[in-house]
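for the recovery benchmark. tokens below, seq after
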């Protein structure tokens, strides 16, 4: 695969390759891998899932086992 990039981006990639002692190809491949290994966004399949997604929201991180222990509940 051949990807054309502008000279500014090429310079940034070359600098990172030098800093990390890697090839430019390794730097770009790692960046692309990082982007595309993320899970795909949720796409509702029917009306029920669309309605559920509309009312759902990010509630932040879950509680740890330590916080849910009997000692953690009283702290």
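predicted aa per position
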């Amino acid at each position: 695969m051949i990807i054309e990039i502008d000279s500014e981006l090429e310079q940034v990639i070359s600098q990172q390759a030098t800093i990390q002692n890697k090839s430019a190809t390794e730097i770009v491949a790692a960046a692309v891998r990082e982007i595309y290994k993320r899970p795909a966004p949720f796409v509702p399949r029917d009306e029920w899932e669309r309605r559920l997604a509309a009312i759902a929201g990010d509630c932040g991180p879950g509680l740890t086992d330590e916080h849910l222990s009997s000692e953690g509940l009283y702290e």
